[in-house]
TrEMBL record:
Keywords: Pyruvate, Thiamine pyrophosphate. Transmembrane segments: none annotated. Residues 192-318 form the Thiamine pyrophosphate enzyme central domain. Residues 379-524 form the Thiamine pyrophosphate enzyme TPP-binding domain. Belongs to the TPP enzyme family. SUPFAM superfamilies: DHS-like NAD/FAD-binding domain, Thiamin diphosphate-binding fold (THDP-binding). It comes from Planococcus faecalis. The keyword Transferase does not apply. This is Pyruvate oxidase. Residues 5-117 form the Thiamine pyrophosphate enzyme N-terminal TPP-binding domain.
Length: 533
């Protein structure tokens, strides 16, 4: 009995996987699936204006929630546009699914209109990359794609000829189920005892915590407090490790702080907690190190660790904390004093009144209206460096393209954040170089009534690129930008827009934006200041 289409099974299985948003743009090779999605009330299709926005939003949704983000596109050009978001998910190790239409099955291989060799296109980026040959395969392959995305923490690609979605199939006895069982990974007793010996012997331990600390914040903080160890957070862990915690020295590296860099060079034991921190130049030249991670492939990948603990971070931190000998706090106290002086300097920078707005002053004003549980979406560029140094996050969530570092990620992250957490404040910090790469999708935020505050740091320049060119000893080239009236653009799209050229105007604009029920762009003119380094 053939009574249901393969496309209807897709929507049923997506519901079983608790997918409630799909980002995409309809078109010929997915129109039959759109028929099924139109019938489905519990899955909301978010029509974007560019497929790259959809893919970046799906990746951001996954980073924020831990659930799989899903995007949808047609064959050919739509599929190509997804690549940036798929690579973002791959590099930041977050589960994502792209369902991609292909030309009709009878035309595959004939080099027809918009046909591409899809599997070749996605071979390097996807953890699962398969083309459905027969409609009957679709339910089982969809389950396997999602399961693999969760297991491998990356993007899965499922390629389906448009006519297969409308093919009626018999699916009385499912071959697979929509379920993923997460492994409970624990280190061996022997390795834990070895780690305990190293920790008890250390006089100046330092913890470098990464995004693997998400879900283990309390345990990592308890370990640091028992060890009397300074904490340093990798940039993706900003906000996971609260900036106001007295052990937290801030970030490390180009985005980092002086106390963090100094503590890293003085430590006699480095604990890499849920991070495979890749910037070797910022780590100690030669010191004993312990690395805790669920992925054995990253143990010792970027630093020659003495001991690797393949384990969930929370479980290992709890075990070690319970058995550690209480430490002396002289090393910690030294760096807490340095931390206090560093924060005083930052506060002075933010409080200083200047004729033209400085980026750090803008961040200080944003901080005033930032709610305790806000979602902060950060774009890539000089704004990343300013935010890393001056923005203080504690219970807020940060979403950013951390490893790929793609400009234009800020608006998709804000859209995903508001859809995932409709009752929370969403604020995006954007550069005037990154935002225009996908600013057309501001109308997506307007269309779906997604109140958010987009703060554009406008210096009419690709400031970070200019800085990089000058650091290389070169004359800056092609970094000046044609000015855009972002406030007028916001109004043209149906949102609200404000222009701020001084601190009073910025405060007024932020106050209005905080109370608005529409998406808001604040066009903030800032001085062309060299980013912190």
């Amino acid at each position: 009995m053939f009574d249901k289409t393969a496309g209807s099974y897709v929507t049923e299985l997506l519901k079983e996987w608790k997918v409630n948003h799909i980002y995409g743009m309809p078109g010929d090779s997915i129109n039959e699936l759109m028929v099924e999605l139109r019938k489905e009330e519990s899955i909301r299709f978010i029509q974007v204006r560019h497929e790259e926005t959809g893919a970046l939003a799906a990746a951001a949704l996954s980073k924020l929630t831990g659930n799989i983000g899903v995007c949808l596109s047609i064959a050919g050009p739509g599929a190509v546009h997804l690549l940036n978001g798929l690579y973002d998910a791959q590099k930041d190790k977050t589960p994502m699914l792209a369902i991609i239409g292909q030309v009709d099955s009878k035309l595959v291989g004939t080099d027809t209109f918009q046909e591409l060799k899809m599997e070749s296109l996605f071979e390097e980026v996807a953890v699962y990359n398969r083309s459905v040959q027969h409609a009957e395969q679709l339910p089982a392959m969809l389950n396997q794609a999602i399961r693999t995305a969760y297991a491998e923490k990356g993007p899965a690609v499922l390629i389906v000829s448009g006519d297969l979605f409308s093919t009626k199939i018999k699916h009385e006895k499912p071959l697979t189920s929509a379920i993923f069982s997460r492994p409970n990974i624990r280190a061996s007793e022997e390795d834990l005892q070895d780690a305990l010996k190293l920790l008890n012997a250390a006089k100046k331990p330092v913890i470098l915590a990464g995004k693997g600390a998400k879900g283990a914040k309390a345990e990592v903080l308890a370990l640091a407090e028992k060890l009397k160890a300074p904490l340093i957070a990798s940039f993706p862990a900003k906000g996971i490790i609260p900036d106001d915690h007295p052990h937290n020295l801030g970030q490390l590296g180009k985005l980092g702080t002086d106390p963090a860099e100094q503590a890293m060079q003085e430590t006699d034991l480095l604990i890499l907690a849920g991070t495979a921190f890749p910037y070797r130049d910022y780590l100690p030249a030669d010191v004993a190190a312990i690395q805790i991670d669920t992925d054995p492939k990253v143990i010792g990948k970027y630093y020659p660790v003495l001991l690797g603990l393949v384990s969930e971070l929370a479980a290992t931190a709890t075990w070690l904390t319970a058995r550690l000998t209480e430490k002396e706090d002289a090393f910690l106290l030294t760096y807490q004093q340095k931390r206090e002086r560093w924060h005083d300097t930052l506060q002075q920078d933010m409080n200083t009144e200047t004729h033209q707005l400085q980026p750090q002053q803008v961040i200080a004003e944003v901080q005033r209206i930032l709610q305790e549980d806000a979602i902060v979406s950060l774009d890539v560029g000089s704004i990343t460096l300013w935010a890393a140094r001056y923005l203080q996050l504690n219970n807020q969530q940060l979403v950013v393209s951390a490893w790929l570092g793609t400009m234009g990620c800020g608006l998709p992250g804000a859209i995903a954040g508001k859809l995932a957490y409709p009752d929370k404040q969403v604020v995006a910090l954007l550069g005037d170089g990154g935002f225009p790469m996908g600013m057309q999708d501001f109308v997506t935020a307007v269309k779906y009534d997604l109140p958010m505050i987009l703060v554009v740091f406008n210096n009419q320049k690709l400031q970070l690129i200019e800085h990089e060119q000058q650091e290389m000893g070169n004359k800056s080239t092609q970094v000046d930008l044609a000015n855009i009236d972002f406030a007028a653009f916001a109004h043209a799209c149906g949102g609200e827009g404000y222009t701020a050229k001084n601190r009073d105007e910025l405060r007024q604009a932020l106050t209005k934006a905080k109370g608005s029920r529409k998406p808001v762009i604040i066009d903030v003119f800032v001085e062309d200041s060299t980013p912190p380094s």
